[in-house]
């Protein structure tokens, strides 16, 4: 694509100028006329977290493209996760992101439209407070702008984005481990870890890959991106895959642990979210809506604490991290949480919990991302139609806001590329 054409593309200029108003999220009133390059294109999105769901949602307004979303998890949401308890049927915990803030105007505008359209998202109106653990002082949290929460569950937001259009199909419990590209057909194929093959994709978007040390031990797409780059190089097919691989090598994430607790008590808690300052272990306690008469909450540990330990026992343990069994980590976090609850609710009786379950997040928040993604808000190879993105591409790093905007940036890249002739133009 020539530079002149590139700069003339209105969609791309939106990405360059953050003050430009976004295209409406309202369903298109009349059928859009589409260039031939857009018709019948099969788009594959790996990952049904915020980034992948946002990419699928924004792409689905294109007529005549089909979008297939794959995820290794049992359902959509990724780190905006909801865990349904086996021991307490009907009780669920938002044990990943509890709610999130939006700081920039573009994100707020997209999110407000989603709230308006009831796309599984609402405003978080809970009472947020701060506890200084060293002095015991409690105060209201500062106003940090609008806060959002999935409704009724945290992952309902991704669920709603993905089911907003029948052109999006969803496949779960499939871990994709290999990508290949057929230069003759100009199509991608993907393979899962049980040798299932999904073929015929004109575009592939990979979200949240290789973002965590522990996750990287079990699965990631980074090795297969390297293999793809090597095979394209060998066959003399022009591509930017090596640039993408190098950019991804800069992604680093922090770990965290969350503890799900349910207490058979009617005690009223004086906050909905308590941010804890000056505590080496506990960073936040989030109270969930009461379920089956139980006081349900999720305690989050500090990043500093989480990063000291690994729950992966040898031989898969992580160098430089101390191994601690999950029960021990859960015990410490529970003790700390109950200490804080007793402090802020001195007259309430706190019985033993009927549920106490730890979740370890190997890669919870991206803390370093590639410079290469700054301008475009995602990583993109326009030679073959391959995009990579996630919460590591944009500000604030490691947030739902950056994942949402990255998904939208990927969708715009794909749309601009297809409108310019896509792979046909790139191959000339
Ligand atoms: C405990 C916790 C608290 C948080 N608190 C906040 C907060 O307060 N505010 C905030 O803004 N953000 C918060 N975050 C961060 C926020 O959740 C993430 O930034 C955001 O959800 C990332 O979205 P994503 O789509 O980039 O990645 P993900 O949600 O990780 O989505 C990636 C998806 O890809 C799938 N996948 C990966 N590899 C493969 C493969 N090979 N095959 C198939 N599927 C694959 C994964 O299963 C996952 O579903 C928190 C995160 C955690 C864990």
From TrEMBL:
<keyword id="KW-0732">Signal</keyword>
<dbReference type="InterPro" id="IPR036188">
    <property type="entry name" value="FAD/NAD-bd_sf"/>
</dbReference>
<feature type="signal peptide">
    <location>
        <begin position="1"/>
        <end position="19"/>
    </location>
</feature>
<dbReference type="Pfam" id="PF13450">
    <property type="entry name" value="NAD_binding_8"/>
</dbReference>
<protein>
    <recommendedName>
        <fullName>Amine oxidase domain-containing protein</fullName>
    </recommendedName>
</protein>
């Amino acid at each position: 694509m020539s530079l002149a054409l590139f700069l003339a593309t209105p969609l791309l200029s939106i990405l360059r100028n953050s003050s430009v108003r976004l295209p409406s999220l309202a369903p298109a009133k009349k059928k859009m006329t589409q260039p031939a390059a857009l018709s019948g294109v099969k788009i594959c999105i790996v990952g049904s977290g915020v980034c992948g769901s946002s990419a699928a949602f924004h792409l689905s307004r294109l007529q005549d493209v089909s979008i297939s979303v794959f995820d290794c998890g049992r359902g959509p949401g990724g780190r905006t996760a909801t865990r349904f308890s086996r021991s307490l049927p009907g009780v669920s915990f938002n044990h990943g992101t509890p709610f999130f803030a939006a700081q920039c105007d573009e994100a707020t505008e997209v999110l407000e439209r989603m709230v308006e359209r009831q796309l599984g998202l609402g405003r978080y109106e809970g009472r947020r407070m701060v506890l200084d653990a060293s002095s015991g002082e409690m105060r209201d949290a500062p106003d940090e702008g609008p806060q959002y929460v999935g409704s009724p569950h945290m992952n309902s937001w991704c669920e709603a984005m993905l089911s907003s259009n029948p052109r999006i199909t969803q496949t779960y419990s499939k871990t994709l481990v290999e990508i290949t590209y057929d230069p003759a057909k100009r199509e991608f194929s993907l393979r899962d870890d049980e040798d299932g093959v999904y073929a015929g994709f004109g575009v592939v978007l990979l979200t949240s890959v290789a973002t965590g040390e522990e996750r990287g031990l079990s699965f990631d797409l980074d090795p297969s991106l390297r293999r793809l780059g090597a095979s394209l190089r060998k066959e003399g097919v022009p591509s930017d895959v090596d640039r993408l691989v190098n950019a991804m090598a800069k992604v680093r994430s922090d770990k965290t642990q969350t503890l799900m607790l349910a207490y058979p008590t009617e005690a009223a808690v004086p906050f909905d979210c308590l941010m804890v300052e000056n505590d080496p272990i506990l960073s936040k306690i989030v109270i969930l809506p009461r379920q089956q008469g139980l006081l349900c909450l999720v305690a989050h540990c500090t990043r500093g604490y989480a990063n000291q330990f690994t729950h992966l026992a040898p031989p898969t343990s992580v160098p430089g991290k101390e191994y601690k069994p999950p029960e021990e980590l859960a015990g410490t976090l529970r003790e700390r949480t109950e200490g804080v609850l007793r402090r802020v609710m001195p007259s309430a009786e706190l019985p033993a919990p009927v549920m106490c379950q730890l979740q370890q997040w190997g890669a919870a928040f991206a803390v370093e991302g590639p410079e290469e993604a700054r301008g475009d808000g995602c990583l993109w190879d326009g030679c073959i139609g391959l995009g990579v993105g996630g919460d590591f591409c944009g500000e604030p790093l490691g947030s739902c806001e950056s994942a949402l905007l990255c998904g939208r940036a990927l969708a715009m890249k794909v749309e601009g590329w297809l409108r310019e002739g896509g792979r046909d133009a790139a191959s000339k």
